[in-house]
Design a protein that fits this description.
- It is a single chain.
- This protein has a domain of 74 residues.
- The protein is 45% helix and 0% strand.
- It contains 3 helices and no strands.
- The mean pLDDT is 86.
Length: 111
């Protein structure tokens, strides 16, 4: 029984280990900005009452940093590269390393 890497998308979204494809990173990026936008708009609309919603910001920030680190790993770089300005744009479009690298197997390969 063979499965492709689409079966493994978002298996460990809060983990900093492994590699992810551009598609999973793009979906994560869109999800993060949707949630962040919702939180910001609720704060603007409802004022101080909505401050408790920012508790959600802690796990969602962990999620996007973990996904960014795994995307950096797919390119053969340390997860700290995501803190370089505009590097997220590069992560969205750059093709990952083919084959296995020091961070794990290529997520595009069929199991």
């Amino acid at each position: 029984m063979s499965r492709n890497s689409a079966d493994e998308m978002f298996k460990k979204p809060f983990s900093f280990e492994g590699r992810i494809r551009r598609a999973e990173y793009f979906i994560s990026f869109v999800f993060y900005f949707f949630v962040w936008g919702f939180l910001y708009m609720s704060l603007l609309l409802f004022g101080k009452v909505a401050y408790f919603l920012f508790i959600i910001e802690i796990p969602i920030s962990w999620f996007i940093v973990a996904q960014g680190a795994k995307r950096c790993h797919d390119l053969g770089n340390s997860g700290f590269f995501q803190y370089v300005p505009f590097y997220h744009l590069f992560l969205l479009f750059a093709q990952g390393d083919s084959g296995e690298n020091e961070y794990g197997r290529n997520p595009k390969e069929i199991l």
